TrEMBL record:
It comes from the Bacteria. GO terms for biological process: xyloglucan metabolic process. Gene3D superfamilies: YVTN repeat-like/Quinoprotein amine dehydrogenase. This is Glycosyl hydrolase.
């Protein structure tokens, strides 16, 4: 059972705690605006958070206090961070960090030291990578360590595509046809070896063979093909939800936002989910999460609240916590469960 959920917004980290089905929300001030967040499942009080211009930070007390990570990450913009689900070395889960400009780093000692993996930048598609709002750069938007094979890792470049390594980041294989190049989120499922799910600016793509081949499937999305996050039912790899908008302009800023959650089941077309969720106008893009300990359960959070589904994404209810008024106009980023 999930004991806590974390998300970031502005210069705060929020912890939503579940104590015997009684939920509470606690706001903790952060030293900087954080853009990404990860929780070590081996040490649940250990958090890693990346900032836009001030590097990677570490907390050992569940987000109450923070300190800078150790040396080795050569860029200050850390926009993605991930914990390996399979590798634990000397009591520490292996941590990956991605930056802008695109680069990848790995720590085996709890963030004290970092190893650089520059071969990612040798891929043939590298000259085409770009991030339209800042067109002269690009970044590692998402890192997905393989759930079934510790040698494999997948990296989503915004905007560049999905890159794959089969030797822990030493060498890389370039993006493949059928995948989406404006990658936002990648995920996997513990019951589906080799299956990778991608939410991207051009819609949904997936691979069933560990990234060798990909197919895009946008049936049912209509004009809402700008997907930002995706989550999969831990007990059924064929049930997934995604957060969607008509484009970047209406996805992130609450003042002009118009977004929805969509659901797909067993290969059928995507369907819009409305039961228990806010109207789309004024509702910024949802961050989504599922957790292996809770079959058929999803969580979603955005500027209007935090919501739970206990029927595999068909219907939703807000969690019974007092929602801070300050969040109504904030973009909520990154969502993790422990």
């Amino acid at each position: 059972m999930v004991s806590a959920l974390y998300f970031v917004a502005g210069s705060s980290v929020f912890k939503v705690k579940n104590n015997n089905s009684v939920w509470s929300l606690n706001e903790m001030k952060a030293p900087h605006d954080f853009y990404c967040l990860a929780v070590d499942p081996v040490r649940p009080e250990r958090l890693y958070a990346g900032s836009f211009n001030d590097g990677l930070w570490i907390s050992d007390d569940g987000g109450m206090t923070w300190r800078p990570a150790g040396k080795g990450i050569i860029h200050k913009r850390v926009l993605s961070v991930a914990i390996s689900p399979t590798e634990i070395i000397n009591g520490f889960s292996v941590v990956w960090a991605g930056t802008e400009p695109s680069d990848l780093f790995r720590s085996e000692d709890g963030g004290q030291t970092w190893v650089h993996f520059p071969k990612l930048l040798d891929l043939p598609s590298k000259p085409t990578w770009r991030f339209p709002p800042r067109p002269h750069t690009h970044h590692v938007r998402w890192i997905q360590p393989d759930l079934h094979d510790e040698q494999k890792i997948y990296v989503g470049i915004e905007l560049g595509g999905v890159m794959k390594s089969e030797d822990k980041g030493i060498t890389w294989k370039d993006r493949q046809p059928g995948s989406q190049y404006d990658c936002h989120t990648l995920t996997m499922n513990p019951l589906a070896k080799g299956r990778i799910y991608e939410a991207a600016g051009g819609g949904f793509a997936e691979s069933l063979d560990g990234g060798k081949t990909w197919a895009t499937f946008n049936d049912g999305l209509g004009s809402d093909t700008y997907l930002v996050e995706i989550a999969v039912d831990p007990s059924n790899p064929d049930i997934m939800i995604a957060s969607a908008a008509r484009g970047a302009h209406s996805a992130y800023d609450p003042e002009r936002a118009s977004t929805i959650i969509v659901r797909r089941d067993s290969g059928e077309p995507w369907e819009v989910v409305q039961d228990g969720l806010p109207e789309r106008d004024g509702s910024s893009i949802f961050s989504l999460i599922s957790h292996v300990s809770e079959p058929r359960v999803f969580y979603a959070v955005n500027n209007l609240g935090i919501f739970q589904s206990i029927d595999a994404g068909k219907s939703w209810k807000p969690l019974p916590v007092e929602w801070p008024e300050s969040l109504l106009k904030e973009r909520v980023r990154w969502f993790v469960a422990v």
